[in-house]
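Module 6 notes. Inverse folding takes a fixed backbone as the condition and produces residue identities as the prediction. Think of it as a translation problem where the source language is geometry and the target language is the twenty amino acids. Below is one complete input and output pair. Work through it position by position during the lab.
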């Protein structure tokens, strides 16, 4: 999967305002004109005009005097997922991993320097996690993200860290750039990455990168679960082997598309 990180050009203020409104609605579930105007520092007339245009284009829906993101974005989202080359074949393996391990299995790709969850499957004994398809996260604090970072050019990793930083999510989160690069080297050596309660206390995760036959980095797949079950031989050998095997199947099947 390729990504152009810098398209250049000057931002269009009207489009920027509409994007800020959509982001605000995403964060709040729904909001009224006054609330949006106060939070975004815009006049109510400006907000109302943008909301009217977004509504006319079916990008927001109105319930009384409150607005929300419309279901039109479901169409956009499904289209975007299908444009990811390995999505369909990876989804099958993710579902299988969740069923066989009983845990949460996920697929992540990189976009704009962050990780985007594309598919999530929950096994019989899985615990609830905050991630969901479409959610975005920092790359340094998840096993999925580290599996991706480990296989990017070093200068690109530095650029991502310069832009997004190394925010601390838990006391175990790696917040030192040198320490992160040392861990990324271990990821390349072992073929899998580990999240040791770095994004959520009590949750551990293992991930493996997804490559094409030509070496293209597609993303990463993972299995995560409570620390009480993610330890010993299961965590160090059984699950890593299962992930590497699933990644290999995805790689083979992706070439047949």
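Target side of the pair, the amino acids:
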């Amino acid at each position: 999967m390729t990504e152009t990180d810098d398209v250049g050009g000057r931002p269009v203020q009207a489009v920027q305002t509409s994007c800020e409104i959509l982001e605000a609605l995403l964060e709040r579930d729904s909001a009224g004109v006054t609330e949006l105007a106060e939070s975004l520092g815009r006049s109510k007339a400006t907000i109302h005009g943008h909301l009217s245009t977004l509504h006319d284009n079916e990008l927001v829906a109105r319930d009384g005097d409150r607005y929300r993101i419309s279901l039109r974005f479901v169409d956009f989202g499904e289209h975007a997922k299908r444009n990811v080359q390995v999505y369909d074949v990876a989804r099958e393996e993710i579902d299988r991993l969740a069923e066989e391990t009983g845990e949460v299995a996920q697929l992540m790709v990189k976009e704009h320097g962050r990780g985007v969850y594309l598919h999530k499957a929950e096994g019989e004994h899985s615990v609830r996690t905050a991630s969901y398809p479409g959610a975005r996260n920092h790359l340094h604090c998840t096993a999925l993200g580290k599996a991706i970072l480990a296989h990017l050019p070093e200068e690109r990793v530095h650029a991502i860290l310069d832009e997004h930083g190394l925010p601390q999510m838990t006391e175990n989160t790696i917040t030192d750039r040198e320490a992160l690069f040392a861990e990324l080297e271990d990821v390349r050596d072992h073929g899998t990455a580990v999240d040791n309660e770095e994004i959520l206390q009590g949750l551990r995760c293992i991930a493996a990168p997804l490559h094409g036959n030509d070496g293209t980095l597609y993303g990463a797949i993972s299995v995560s679960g409570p620390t009480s079950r993610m330890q010993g031989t299961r965590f160090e050998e059984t699950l890593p082997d299962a992930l590497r095997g699933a990644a290999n199947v995805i790689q083979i099947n992706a070439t047949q598309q």
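Reference fact for the lab report: The longest strand covers residues 217-226.
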